Amino acid sequence: MRPGRERGFTYLGLLLIVAAMGAGMAAFGELASQAARREKETELLFVGDAYRNAIGQYYESSPAGNKRYPQKLDALLRDERFVFTRRYLRRLYADPVTGKEWATVQAPDGGIMGVYSKSEASPAKSGNFPPGYEAFTDARRYADWQFVYSQPAAGPTASK
Predict the structure, then answer these.
(1) Nearest 5°: phi and psi at 25?
(2) How far apart are CA 54 and CA 75, in angstroms?
(3) Residue ranges of the alpha helices (H) in 61-141?
């Protein structure tokens, strides 16, 4: 057998190994991308909930008979309606999905009652949300995940 023919088989074997490694790296890249996306979703839920809770605290701590929502998100950092400054958030957090500012949900009587992402991307998570997030089930885009504080209904609650 001539040595020239053996080199062709070695070269072919090397090409197959490189192709297999490329396919493996592509699969790994896809897994890493999905993991990063899920991590951003988890952070979106956490930060969105922090905004919702801060807006709720601002609203509920309003002086008696004058409950209102904050006019700007900055008011959650320094609520100067009182003698001493109250803080509901340590800082204004960026939207984890876009890295930019949040869009706001306006209250009917003025002010901001919630936030949501401006991202039009579709979420990886579509179900199994914790209690309070049922509205996020089967959302088509992150912008449909709205973190809104709704004031509790007035009046007595029915009990059995």
Answers:
(1) -70, -35
(2) 10
(3) none
Higher pLDDT among residues 32 and 50, named by residue: 50
- Per-domain boundaries in the chain: 46-153
CB distance 93 to 77 below 8 Å: no
Banded pLDDT at 149 (limits 50, 70, 90): very high
pLDDT of residue 155: 43
DSSP state of 124: S
Q: What is the dihedral of CA 97, 42, 106, 98, to 10 degrees?
A: 0
54 near 89, Cβ under 8 Å?
yes
Strand partners, 132: none
Tell me what percent of the residues of the chain surpass a pLDDT of 90.
42
Q: Which residues pair with 98 in a beta bridge?
A: none
Residue 65 has pLDDT above 80, yes or no: no
Q: Which residue, chain included where needed, has tokens 């089930």?
A: 137
For residue 75, what are its two tokens?
């008011």
pLDDT at 154 over 70: no
